[in-house]
Design brief:
2 copies of one chain form a homodimer.
Chain A lengths: L2 E2 L3 E3 L5 E9 L14 E2 L10 H19 L9 E5 L6 H10 L3 E3 L6 H14 L6 E7 L1 H9 L14 E2 L2 E8 L6 E6 L14 H20 L8 E4 L3 H14 L9 E3 H4 L11 E2 L2 H16 L5 E9 L3 H5 L6 E9 L6
Parallel strand pairs in A: 3-4, 5-6, 5-7, 8-13, 11-12, 11-14
Antiparallel strand pairs in A: 1-2, 2-10, 3-9, 7-9, 10-15, 14-15
Helix pairs in contact in A: 1-2, 5-6
């Protein structure tokens, strides 16, 4: 079986991230990771008629850029796998309409990046496609409209709230070419600690990240020293601190420098983002920008990326439901460093 | 490559539909296909606090039934793949929370059944899971609330409109066991003929079905006589008539008895469903109920199932966008009848 434990997929045929496209908005141009974006859009509208269409454009442009940087043709792409936070994932669908690749829509909120990367790796590992395009986008203002409307003038947010990243990160996965190797994927279960505060999603999602990380270590029968870095998706400063403590409580003793969070690291202290970044683009731009770059520099040779998603809707919150969460993990390893 | 053409996955390791669970609502108990459901819920509320929770219950119950009928344990399931029409696919997510299997959320509206079945077949073909659970549910009243609210008292619908099926159909896919073999999957592109009427989704989706069917025949290099039956998802009476004519125009001459549509066949003439059934459950209950049963009786030995999805949202309709559509095709063949 190309399976370890119950839910960790193995990819012995070495699918790799052979190319990426990473675009941000104006706010991201001032972030900690600004050097890891290919370029930035100058304003939130991006000459589009709506914020949703701006999000669509980000995804289209990041996709085309990944194809261009891979030095392949658009028609070489076998499949496009993507999704987003918006109702019926319409920005992604309209991008897929423009790109005209065969298309699989997925939904796991901010865990979209690792769900898509897991599927892309599986497909290429099974020789069911040569070049798979995957990625995710989000847009601060489109997300605010859907989840937080009406956004009142002067309305305050609690310190646990997070800032949706405006951007898109895309990758091309193939067994041919060079780049970080996708060695395994651990698919998470829905974990729901009965939290009900949509302004504290980092806290709601932390237990899902912990569950998937522990499952991954158990399935793979490895210890805490295996990875140079374990990085969660968008728990933010508060959520990632909870995650680190929970992992320790549950027996996984990481060194502090072994653990990061995309949402906690992306913005500067001086940016007014409360607990940090979030959104489907958050793990997408950090993974396909910063992490891929640092792996190429061999700052890190073995990384576990654990994107997390809060799977509630405005309707379920109004109906009094708790916030169900999920996390999917992907291990990336430089060739020569795989055991 | 386990690929034919650009986007038709091949499954030489013979993943099979080894078990199904099919549940309907009270309206479906009076349908043409009532004998192909395992059982029916007596009312739309199903003792739940909301229609969305009733939809969740349908999916949970159909999933558990498929596991029970396969004579395996819940813990034997490696992965649950599902999605639905609701914002952020929350009924599916809350079902996944109760089932506690590793979970991949997908979104392709009423094409969810074939997207899920394609992925389940790929995963088992790649030996990345022994038992994969997949399926889809929809609920008439939950869908009306989201897409057609306010549903006015006495408000009339045009004859092109369709009736969302209340029900759930689930299947367990495995390379071990007996049942119809999933031999290939053709993944569709987004096709958008710039139609803007959300009360004529059959017409909007028909060209997507046509595109995927023609791609499948080209990729597989087969002719119209290959399949005993080609069945589209939920085009309804009007949309399926358009599809049949378009296929003929484009050079695929099917005999009338070779072509059906889940939405056109599910309800009786006497039921007030306008152009027919729709919803994510429509192709799910017809595929995992009627079609699997008829294949077991060898009424059909080779079927191409082409579930179709209209990927718009209420927001994109209000913003004046057209209705982007998709279709994913799955070929099911009885063992001994594969060429």
């Amino acid at each position: 079986m190309m399976l370890s434990g119950k839910s960790t997929w193995l990819f012995p045929n070495k699918p790799k991230i052979i190319s990426t496209g990473v675009i941000g908005g104006p706010f991201e141009a001032d972030s900690n990771l600004s050097k890891d974006f290919d370029y930035f859009k100058d304003d939130l509208w991006m000459e589009q008629a709506s914020f949703e269409k701006a999000q669509q454009l980000l995804l289209e442009d990041a996709s085309k850029l990944a194809v261009k940087k891979a030095q392949i043709n658009e028609k070489d792409i076998n499949l496009f796998i993507s999704g987003d936070l918006m109702n019926q994932i319409t920005p992604t669908t309209f991008a897929a309409k423009m790109l005209q690749h065969p298309y699989l829509g997925i939904f796991s909120a901010c865990a979209t990046t690792t769900e898509g990367l897991a599927l892309a790796a599986l497909i290429t590992n099974n020789h069911s496609g040569k070049y798979i395009l995957t990625g995710a986008a989000s847009h601060h203002a489109a997300t605010e409209r859907q989840y937080r409307y009406p956004t009142e003038y002067g309305g305050q947010k609690p310190p646990t709230s997070q800032w949706t990243v405006t951007g898109a990160g895309c990758a091309i996965v193939s067994t041919e070419g060079e780049g970080p190797v996708v060695t395994s994927a651990t698919l998470g279960k829905v974990i729901d600690m009965e939290m009900t505060d949509p302004f504290h999603m980092g806290g709601a999602m932390a237990p899902a990240a912990v569950d998937t990380i522990l499952t991954h270590f158990k399935d793979q029968n490895i210890d805490a020293s295996y990875y140079d870095l374990i990085i969660t998706g968008d728990l933010g400063k508060i959520g990632s601190s909870i995650c680190f403590d929970l992992l320790k409580q549950r027996g996984l003793h990481l060194q502090r420098k072994q653990y990061e969070d995309c949402g906690a690291m992306i913005y500067k202290e001086s940016q007014p983002v409360f607990s940090g970044g979030s959104g489907a683009a958050c793990p997408a731009v950090v993974t396909y920008g910063y992490l891929v770059n640092e792996m190429k520099k061999q700052t890190y040779n073995k990384i576990l990326i654990v994107a997390t998603g809060a799977l509630h809707s405005p309707l379920t919150v109004k109906q009094g439901d708790s916030i169900p969460c999920i996390a999917h993990a992907i291990s990336l390893e430089n060739e020569g460093d795989q055991e």
